[in-house]
Amino acid sequence: MPHTLDQQVALATAASRLAADFEGTFGAETIERFLHTSYDQFAGRAAVATFLPLLAERFARQRLTALARVEGLSHDGRPTVLFLCVHNAGRSQMALGFFRYHAGDAAIAWSGGSEPGDQVNPVAVAAMAERGIDISAEYPKPWTDEVVRAADVVVTMGCGDACPVFPGKRYEDWSLDDPAGQGLDAVRPIRDDVERRVLTLLDELQVTVRQP
User: Fold this and answer.
1) Is the model's pLDDT at 89 over the cut of 80?
2) Number of structural domains found in the chain
3) Per the residue annotation, which of 14, 18, 56, 163 is the catalytic one?
4) At a CB cut-off of 8 Å and minimum separation 6, what does 161 contact?
5) What pLDDT does 204 receive?
6) Which CA distances in Å does 11 have to 23, 51, 180?
7) Which of 1, 24, 3 shows the shortest CA–CA distance to 12?
8) Structural domain includes residue 212
9) Higher pLDDT pick, 192 / 76
10) Which domain holds residue 196?
């Protein structure tokens, strides 16, 4: 997808920020490749092109962080969990929100989808807001090999054979109703089930739950 002049400037600025963040870990060529392939992941389905460089930068930063972990260039010892569903718009986003809320900085969580949607489900956003957790700034994104390989635990939710499988990795499959197309009353029990499962997982990972 051709870049406008504003997008070119924004991508160049993003590349500079990433280069500063990963100085001594990755060179400019790797950073630019990850940034531009991340941009391409969103370019075909982004509703507002203005935000494409920002989304690309955020996703590239996650992917580069994962790659550094996979290649043994950076590892702080914190457990990392990847939540996967089909559209990365409801279940996996709620799980990500609860995990980050309860774990704080003691663990890392990412999310992705086998067929990423256009936006996070507004009803899921509303349901989480009732619990004081804001997931409105999140965005559906695909999973990539380095992100899966960097995770200690991969939690799948309804993506079936489309979910990635790497030998020797811990997998959990959570059977949860899909909140897509459902109202708030129907999504609340799904949300609460997600939280219970997240708290159980954190306990199994021996992560101390952050006190509100």
Assistant:
1) yes
2) 2
3) 163
4) none
5) 97
6) 18, 11, 33
7) 3
8) no
9) 192
10) 80-204
| Helix/strand/coil for 4 | coil
Residues 6+ apart with CB under 8 A from 181: none
Give, for 80, the enclosing helix (H) or strand (E): strand 80-85
Is the pLDDT at 69 greater than 90, yes or no? yes
Give alpha helix (H) positions in the chain.
5-21, 28-43, 52-70, 91-103, 122-129, 145-150, 184-204
Catalytic: which of 85, 89, 96, 107? 85
Q: What type of residue sits at position 42?
A: F
pTM here?
Answer: 0.92
**Upper half-sphere CA count for residue 116 (Cβ side, 13 Å):** 20
- 159 is a catalytic site residue: yes
The active-site residue, picked from 159, 176, 190, 198, is: 159
Active site residue 163: yes
Tell me, yes or no, whether 45 and 104 share the same domain. Answer: no
Task: Check residue 2 and give its pLDDT.
Answer: 54
